[in-house]
Design goal:
This protein is mainly alpha-helical and 188 residues long. It contains seven helices and no strands.
Length: 188
């Protein structure tokens, strides 16, 4: 009888130890997802902060392209109003903003004076750098989401996920395939 008690106690310790290890993995992975989202958010805010100055530079040259300028302004405002939205909503709005910026850059090709403006070129370079950082941040975030989601869905960790209410996280994805292409914003 005493041996059976020790076996039961040993088994209980192993189960509790396993639960603690898996729970801590959930916490670690959730923190990595939050860190990844924070990185995306920082880069998106950097991009949003570049846009007003870029638009001011462009306005003088592109006075009759008001529709494009308004589209960028409206898309930026929508993005800023949704700052606390989840990844799915933010990705939709960011895709609209990226599309509007792409149109602005494409139309700027028709203005040789603008293409030669050093301020515009600086904003263009900064925008490209921020877009690259957004892409890197998105990869990190989506990798962290993948790891958390695997834990949430895999057996036997899914049992612990259900007990402690851990849920799958949302990926940050672009809406359509054309947005997935790397924009070419070079004027040379």
């Amino acid at each position: 009888m005493e041996l059976l008690g020790w076996i039961f106690l040993g088994l209980l310790i192993v189960i509790i130890g396993y639960i603690i290890i898996v729970y801590n993995n959930f916490i670690k992975n959730r923190q990595l997802v939050e860190e990844g989202w924070s990185g995306i958010d920082v880069q998106l805010k950097r991009r949003a902060n570049l846009i007003p100055n870029m638009l001011e530079t462009v306005k003088g040259y592109m006075g009759h392209e008001k529709g494009v300028l308004e589209a960028v302004t409206n898309a930026r405002a929508a993005v800023q109003n949704a700052a606390s939205a989840g990844p799915a909503e933010r990705s939709k709005l960011e895709s609209v903003l990226s599309g509007a910026l792409g149109k602005l850059i494409a139309i700027a090709e028709n203005y040789p004076e603008l293409k030669a403006n050093t301020t515009f070129l600086e904003f263009q370079g900064a925008l490209q750098m921020v877009e690259d950082e957004i892409q890197l941040s998105r990869r990190y975030y989506n990798g962290s989401v993948r790891n958390l989601n695997i834990l949430v869905e895999s057996f036997p960790s899914n049992i612990i996920a259900n007990i402690f209410k851990f849920e799958k996280a949302e990926y940050f994805e672009l809406e359509n395939e054309t947005d997935r292409a790397v924009p070419n914003i070079s004027f040379s």
